[in-house]
Amino acid sequence: MGALSLGEKSGYDLKKDFEHRMGHFWAESLGQIYPTLHRLHREKLVVVRRGGAEGRPERKLYRLTAAGRKALKSWLLEEPERESVRNELLLKLFFGPEMGTETALRHLESLQERLLRRQRVFGGMTQEIESLPVSQEQRAYWHLTLDAGQELCEARLRWCRKSLDRLRKMQASNTSNG
Amino acid sequence: MGALSLGEKSGYDLKKDFEHRMGHFWAESLGQIYPTLHRLHREKLVVVRRGGAEGRPERKLYRLTAAGRKALKSWLLEEPERESVRNELLLKLFFGPEMGTETALRHLESLQERLLRRQRVFGGMTQEIESLPVSQEQRAYWHLTLDAGQELCEARLRWCRKSLDRLRKMQASNTSNG
DNA sequence: TTACGCATGTAAGAGGTTACATGATTTT
DNA sequence: AAAATCATGTAACCTCTTACATGCGTAA
Asked: How far is the CA of A173 from the C1' of D14 (A)?
């Protein structure tokens, strides 16, 4: 979790960053962020500065030290660990015979809706990137991660449609036969 | 974790099942499975039976009770929770400017290799399903989950290739300009 | 004889979420 | 006046992985 504070200085803006910019591939709760910042401070990887405008609640602005940037780089060099796979929908679907076709269809339809909503969000983000004051390079990498989200989203949608189709056919043949 | 023991009776075969049949969408460790089985037993959702052939280590075979099957069905009815997103590769890639193109390329190439290997595994599984003694219905749902794995795998590969391409172009233009 | 596969379990600890606690300011 | 947003933090709790402990049988 050392990679939180890269270019800028921030406080609970980190939470916002996680939600708005990295929401589609990473999540972090405040109960995780604050203790981590304290730890990084203890380890001299960040420095704090009091900030915040008049009449606004006080904020603590964190910035990477040279040691912090070094630690970040060495972490970035390491091979990313493979993510643990835990897909509850697929698990339930695997037990489809116990569940019944109607429930399976319901779950799939609800996933489909969520995916369509997310797809619209991606569309908005793609345009938003261009308007933000970041380097061209940062923008390119940002697009890369967004593209991953879109590609996966589309793949899931394709699979959803295909599966809904198959299940409906299954249901139809079972109804007529049994 | 009530859904472990569906049709059959099993012990640490569950672990094998998770690895071989559900490996692409769910993982469960033994340190999780055994305590869970004890809990399910306490809650009268499963019954145990001693088993195992002569000269083989003793095994405990678990089977769902009526109450267990009921609990399973009610769990299957519930809307699956959305999975928590934590993709370390994308997180690191987001910090691409700190990382450098070469490292990004290395990470992506290593992911690509892993995905190609997994794709071959899927190919094998698709054929294997047909040879196993399970119901036609179970087989259909199994195919569904496998199909999800394949679709996602392909999407990731497409994205990998695209990203490698883009990064290589970026690298080339940076080298010639700077 | 060394190691691996079968088989069951426990305990420590890492990692993470949620709820709680506090308090100011701005919007409705 | 109430609710939402900004802002920081703590503590309890849950979940899960890893490592440890044990022991038999078989294959290298």
From this structure: 44
User: What is the distance in angstroms measured between the alpha-carbon CA of B30 and the sugar C1' of D26?
Assistant: 23
More confident residue, A45 or A5: A45
Q: Examine the pLDDT at B99 and tell me if it is beyond 80.
A: yes
> Quick check: pTM over 0.70?
yes
Window A59-118, strand C contacts by Cβ < 7 Å: none
Best CA proximity match to A163, nearest among A107, A119, A85: A107
Q: Which own/partner pairs from B135-142 qualify as long-range (CB within 8 Å, at least 24 positions apart)?
A: B135/A97, B137/A96, B137/A97, B137/A170, B138/A96, B138/A97, B138/B7, B140/A96, B140/A166, B140/A170, B141/A93, B141/A94, B141/A95, B141/A96, B141/A97, B141/A104, B142/A94, B142/B21
A13-24 pLDDT, tens digit per residue, is 899 989 989 999
- Strand C atom within 7 Å of B30 CB: yes
The number of angstroms, rounded, from the C-alpha of B61 to the middle of its chain's C-alpha atoms is 24
Q: Identify the burial level of A41 via C-beta atoms within 10 angstroms of its C-beta, where 0-12 means exposed, 13-18 middle and 19 or more buried.
A: middle
Closest nucleotide to B35 by C1' from CA:
C9
B169: nearest CA partner in chain A: A140
B32-75, pLDDT tens digit by residue? 999 999 999 999 999 998 876 666 778 899 999 999 999 999 99
Look over chain B and give the mean of its residue pLDDT values, rounded to a whole number: 90
pLDDT in tens, A97-108: 999 999 999 999
Say yes or no to pLDDT of A175 above 80.
no
CA of B76, C1' of C27: distance in angstroms: 43
Nearest to B120 by CA among B25, B27, B26, B24: B24
Best interface-test mutation with A: which of B18, B28, B82, B88 has the largest number of A CBs within 10 A?
B88
B148 vs A158: CB contact, 8 Å cut-off?
Answer: no
